[in-house]
Amino acid sequence: MMKFRFRRLVAEHQHRLYGLAVQMLGNPAEAEEVVQDALIKLWHHLEGLEAERVRPWLLTVTRNACLDLLRRRRFQAVPLAVGADEFIAGDVDDPAASYETADREQRLMDAVRQLKEPFRSLILLREVQGCSYAEVGQVLQLNPTQVKVYLHRARRKLRDLICWDDLGIEQS
Amino acid sequence: MSNNSQQPDWFQERLEAYVDGELSVTEAQRFDGRLADDAELRQAVANAQSLQRALRRIQSPRAPAAIRKAVVEQTGTHWITHRNAGWLAATAATLALAISLIGQFNASPQVTAEMQLTAREIAKGRQDLALALAYLDQATVHTSRKVSNTWVNDGLLRPVSSGLNRPADALERLPVTIEDEV
Q: pLDDT for A101-149, tens place per residue?
């Protein structure tokens, strides 16, 4: 029964965790290792973990592992090691447009990675991974008010970092 | 925002929550009221929405299959191990048998209706047969009595000693006639 539950959880969460790790680290090989470790830790802690706590727990473990790695390599706006094609949104009929979209997304992600913690994690968890305010608060150990305030600051800092025209974002 | 001199940060602080739809109804109404008059605030909201849309369009890469494989190997959570292979095979065989049996009994509605009709006909036939046998049995008994009575009445079993003078005595000793029973 435990095996069944574990395998179901792996299938359910692996892509989200990998996405977060790649976006934080910019390196698929490292992200793969981080996610593997997080899922193995889940197996060892699964018995005492309530169902609703699993996702925030996994996101926290994955994020902490990414931060450790970033500290170790003295992170300085590491260039994205993942190819643009990994992010292609999928207009296969128009490869040029797809590549342009992917390139745009890559530059946006580079800007996100330049943010300091916890702003970077806030943007990734809330905007890219689609977590709720409550879930973001659980992962980052912030109360709801702090989540709102920090998220506001994170977005403001990100807006300062990006070049709107370069990103193709239409400004009204 | 240019008109926010009294509370310069109120709208800025709530701009993200407004874009996220996280403001209370009262706060949202207040924000909407300001938006109608403040072009700068409208621009800020539009920028925030554009950035949010751009971030949400970013597609996360999918985890490679190697992750799952490595995790399953390192945690020993394969579905099939040497220890449970036999048990799984037996379970699979039992399930296959159960499914085939269910398939046989769980026929189409038309076949099921025909089967029910046949069963009813068989039951009716058995009932008719039992009734016929009961009549036959009764008829056999009556016939044998009739024959017996006829013969008695004809005097075949009548003791010679009783003589023709006392026929009533002989009749009293006889079983009831078939006409009486009917």
A: 777 788 888 899 899 999 999 999 998 888 988 999 999 999 988 898 8
CB–CB contact B67 A43 (8 Å): no
The pair of three-digit structure tokens given for residue B142, joined into one six-digit string:
């009556």
ipTM rounded to 2 decimals: 0.76
Q: Is the dihedral of CA B23, B27, B33, B34 positive or negative?
A: negative
With beta carbons under 8 A apart, name residues in chain B contacting A158: 51
Cα gap A10→A2, rounded to integer Å: 12
Contact call for B75 and A40, based on CB within 8 A: yes
Spatial contact of B45 and B15, defined as CB atoms under 8 Å apart:
yes
Instruction: Calculate mean pLDDT across residues B25-32.
Output: 90
Which pTM value belongs to this model?
A: 0.61
Whether the Cβ atoms of residue A59 and residue A139 lie closer than 8 Å to each other: yes
Q: How far is B125 from chain A (nearest CA, A)?
A: 54
